[in-house]
Amino acid sequence: MEGKDNESHCKRQNPPYAVSTVMVHGASRFEPRTGAVSVPIYQSSTFRHPALNETTGYDYSRGTNPTRAELERTIALAEHGKYGLAFASGMGAISAVIKLFKPGDHLIVSEDLYGGTYRLFDEFYRAYGFSFSWVDTSSVNLVEAALKPETKGIFIETPSNPMMKVTDIGGCAEIIHRRGGLLIVDNTFLSPYFQNPLDLGADITLHSATKYLAGHNDTLAGLIVHSQDALEERLRLIQKGEGATLGPFDSWLTLRGMKTLALRMERHQENARLVAHWLRKCPQVETVFYTGFEDHSQYTLSSTQARGHSGMISFYLKDAAFAPALLKNVSLILFAESLGGVESLITYPLVQTHNAIPEAMRLSAGVDDRLMRLSVGIEDAGDIIGDLEAAFARCGKRGG
Known about the structure:
400 residues, alpha/beta, Aspartate Aminotransferase, domain 2, Aspartate Aminotransferase, domain 1, seven-stranded mixed sheet, five-stranded mixed sheet, 14 strands, globular
């Protein structure tokens, strides 16, 4: 079953295909000259011109490359957008988007988001005259209250990283569009299989394709999708001018990973559901954050704007002393940064993904020394739970 996936069609194909089908076949489906069903890796930095003022459409791979172009067209179809752009990492994609704004502009940003995004905004772009307000964007009222005359954009993660808060995409779009600004949605946690922000009013959606899209913890990639002609020329110039483009081999790896996105996301989701319910019964765990719980405060909103809940879980330990023992004693689950790969990964946000965020802001968002983040992989769910059970058993009553 694909949940509501059959209702999520890629609008620029005839007939319109479900996102699962688009991911398998890609934008081109096959290479026309040879019939190859896997797009070739055009591992070339430059391309021959037939004659002066004539071109094959490709000249230099920093600007355009056929393998990367296939990835860009495919993600655009999957996200129901007109244009796709591929970058060397998710952070490269975010950096390109922020360059659409100018010094003096103000952006409202989810306070509960990846620490690397905070570092990029606060330590780099603030120095160039940009200003940011960090807001609990799961409250539309707080977003509205944070508006300033110079507010030109809203940047959200939904669900958020790591507290799994859900933001009303349509509500934020309405707020920022009243003043001609842009809504940017980081869709990494759900992928286009479960959520399509452009359909809900977002202007730009982006991904760390390193995560669920590529899906195998073997490449770095970032993707942007949008549908506005006015933005495309500027974004292409930023992409080419700065040169943080995705290479042909990494483009191919991402395309290959995306072919199994639908299968993996269903398995991630089912495993996460089982693990999340088990964690709720674990005596060493105080609170579990998972958007798939029907008693999650924003379950109804999540069910309205998304078709699933992915494989991401966060939880509070009852005692911070359990953390070192848990991280040391997991065996099948890997203590590592990142998320969204086939392997289950456990992360300690305080010292890994969110260390760049100032302590007061981090604590206000809920990231403290008891918080763990779990990216549930596609292994056997019983084995994942068994590994957690054995690791927690070694924690004792006060860690160890």
